[in-house]
Structures are given as structure tokens and as C-alpha cells.
Amino acid sequence: MSEAETQPIEQRFLASVSHEIRTPLNGILGMASLLAETELTPAQADYVSAIRRSGARLLDLLNNVLDYARMDAAGVELETAETDIRGLAQDVVELLSPRAHEKGIDVCVRAAGNLPEKVVLDDGRVRQILFNIVGNAIKFTEKGGVLVDLSTLNDKELCIDINDSGPGLTEEAQARLFNAFEQAEAGHRGIDGGVGLGLTIVNRLVEAMNGSVTITSAPGIGARFRILLPLNVAAAAKPVERAGQPKRIGLAGMSAPLMLSLIAMADAAGHTILTEADGSEVDIWLADARLPPSELKRLGHSAPVIALIRPEDRDHIENLRANGCAGYLMRPVREASLMERLAVSGSAAEPEATEQTGQFETGRILIADDNAVNALLATRVLEKAGHACTTAATGAEALEAVQFSHFDVILMDLRMPVMDGYEAMRQIRALPGAEKNNTPIIAISAEINPDVEKAAKAAGADAVAAKPLDAHTLRSIVDRWTDRQKAQA
């Protein structure tokens, strides 16, 4: 019996509806995203942009209506586990970062120094909450960015603040913000196009977790959503050893959210951030890759420059090297990646390390999806990024491919004929040899909820991503996992 057949009839109905609508929607949005990267006339570019906007609005509507219906049908059931809240928040912002980067803004995480390594909570529900609020914040923010702030209050509550530099809300709008089927501002309806359910869903989930969600805002100053949840600290983790000598780090051209995120990471490792400094005080520069070439070269005369780039900027890496950059980091920046870069910068091993840790690595990707359009989309997107792709139309074909070939990443659709993605992952993980067991598997599903996510990870998935995936998001996911694999090799 498959995973889907074990669900109650209401949940099976919602899962089927979700899959049957999202699958063609994935093809529409994905192909429109690919088309947007070709040479188009101005009129054609406008048409493609309209398709993508309409598809995104339809997707938001579908997500919210199905989530709302699911909670009405099955209620809110919680399943707690020890969770790395930093990693969870980082995963969310990485998946949402293509939306932010497309608008020219940043989305980042900042963790307080006293935040526990692990807390006990329902990670699937918290991820759902963050996707709703952070996604909303990105939608309404045109300049600056969005910062997810993690901290504790009085050692009793986990505090998650989502701060944006958007237009802000009036008191009247805030009063009805969490009401079902209402949007905060009539003027926003042309932007959102939804039915006003996202924050209602957030409110129900937070209440089920015995927490609270509030908003502080005013027109022109952005908004801060604050989520407070009971703090249940897991057993203390082993302290993380920090490699390398403390460094004085200069920041150049950063948005406020990115600057605050980097300062927190550096401070936690004993480094010193200098937001206003000349070259004589700096051991290494972290600079926005969009700075003018002349500015990057000027900074490079005083200290090594590490450029912070978006995954979609890979084509500019050689230009950055030519402009004096010693390496790069992908944004949103992971703490482990930053620490690794700082540890090797300025050392005798730096030239080799620059080639190892500051270079996009291409790899062999297995795409398991029974939908020919979605398989073609993923293949074209990843081949354009330099990856070699193999496709499989069933879980059985995917298992056979893994037995006879090496892959750096596997993209596994969960609903396939003959053998579904869950069973394929279980059998892949049971294959002999550490190489097969350690190959990253990203489960791809049109039906994403905490139950699906937990079942996928129990079957062997390293991460779960929801359809539809546009070109930027798909490339970003694969680049990060291939990069991680190469770093561990």
C-alpha cells in the first residue's frame, strides 16, 4: 500500500486535487521562467512577465485554499521533535531567496548568541508559518529586504521576528489582518490577488502551538511580525569548534538585513565587523558583487575581497576574479560557509582554497518525474547551469539508474507509477556502499504539508521542495547541494 492510500479520504482528496493542479502549473511557470531567460522583444517580455505574475497569484490562492481546507478537515495535529531552528529558518529563506533576488532585495537570518542549538517543536508547522509570513513580506517589500530574527525571551519563549522594509500598515488594517477572506489594504489587492487566508492559517497554527503572533507597523516604516512559542530546550549539543584566527572584516555595499545577519555570524565566532573602515584596518572585505568594478578593485588593493553573489550570477564569476575578488559566497550566506571562507582567507592555502570553496561545482543529476513536461523543464534548467542530467519516469527506473551510475544529487518526485518516490528512496538508502547512502535526495512534491515532509524524510530525503519550482529556485537548490557534496568530498 502506498503512502497516499494510508491517508483518510478527505486528505487523499486534497492531496489528489493539489497534485493534479500543481503539476501542470509547474510546467506553465517553469517554462515561462525559461522563456524569460531567452532573447525576447519588449512586447514578448511583457507577455511572459504577465504569465508569471498570474501563475504566481494562482499558486498563492491554491496554497492558501488547500491549507485552510486541510485544517478544517483534519484539524491541527502537532508532532514535536528536536529541531535546529537556525537551520530551519535558513532553509526557508534559501528557498524563498529567488523571489527576493528577482526584486533586488535580500532575505536573511540573524540568530541571537544565546539561542539554543536545538529546541523541541513541530518543525513542519513552524516551517509553514515562516513560509507564509516571509513570503508575504517579500511580496510587499520593494527596497531593502526581510530579516528573520531568532532569539529567546526570559528563557521561557522562543521569539521569531520577521522584519521587512515594506510600505507598512495602518492601525485599521492591522486590526483585520488575521481575519479570514480579508486583505489588509484594498490597494494591495492588485499585488496579492489572493483571498486573505495566509495569515489566518498562521494564526491558527500558532494558537495550536500555545503561542501568539502580533504585528507592529505603521505606514512608511515597514512591519514586524512577532511569533512567540513556548521554549522547550533540547539536550545541550556539543559546542561547535571555530577554526581560524579572529579577523577584522570590512563590509561594503550591503543591505541592512544582510549586514545584520553577517554581524551576528561573525560576532558569534569571535571576529570583528567594521561597517565603516578604511583598508588599513581590514583583514578581509565582504562586498556586494553588484558594486562597480572600480570599487571592487579599490577594496582589493587593501585586503582580499570576497564577493557576495546570487546563485543566478554564476556567469559573472570570472569577471569578479578579473576585478580582484579572491572568492565568493552565495547569498543568503550560511554561517558554515562564511566560517570556512574566513578560516582559509589570507593563509598559505588560500589560492587552492579559493578554487575549492569559491567555485560553483557542476554535477550529475538524476531527475525522477513521470510528467514529461516537468522532467524536460528540470533538464533544460540544470543543463543550462552546466549539470549533466539523467531522467527516470518511475521510482523503479530511478532505483535502477542509481544502482549502475553515480549521481551528485537526486530530484525525486513523490507521486510516480510502478514505484512511488517514497519506496524508491527507501530502496536507494538500503543499497550497499556509503556513496549511495550519502547521495543527497531532494523530494519534490505538489502536495507539501508537515505529514508529507516527515514521511519523505523518514523514507530517506535530505530535503523537501514544493512544486512549482521556477528556474531560479531549482538551480539554487541543486547548486547548494552539489556545492555541499564537493565540500565534503
Provide structural commentary.
With 489 residues, the chain is an alpha/beta fold. Helix content is 46%, strand content 19%. The protein has 18 helices and 17 strands. The strands form four sheets. A five-stranded mixed sheet has the order 2-4-5-7-6. Strands 9-8-10-11-12 form a five-stranded parallel sheet, sandwiched between helices. It has a five-stranded parallel sheet with strand order 14-13-15-16-17, sandwiched between helices. A hairpin with a 5-residue loop joins strand 6 and strand 7 (223-230). Helix 1 (9-36) runs antiparallel to helix 2, helix 4 (123-140) runs antiparallel to helix 7 and helix 11 (335-344) runs antiparallel to helix 12 (350-357). The longest helix has 33 residues, at 42-74. The radius of gyration is 22 Å and the shape is globular. The two termini are 38 Å apart. Mean pLDDT is 82; it is low at 186-190 and 347-360.
**How would you sum up the major sheet?**
5 strands, mixed
Strand order of the largest sheet: 2-4-5-7-6
Low-confidence region ranges:
186-190, 347-360
Q: Average the pLDDT over all residues and give the rounded result.
A: 82
**Based on helices, strands and strand pairing, what is the structural class?**
alpha/beta
What value does the Rg take, in angstroms? Answer: 22 Å
Determine the fraction of residues in helical runs and give it as a percent range.
Answer: 40-55%
* Strand element count: 17
Portion in beta strands: 15-25%
Distance between the termini: 38 Å
Shape: globular
In DSSP terms (H or I, runs of 4 or more residues), the helix count works out at: 18
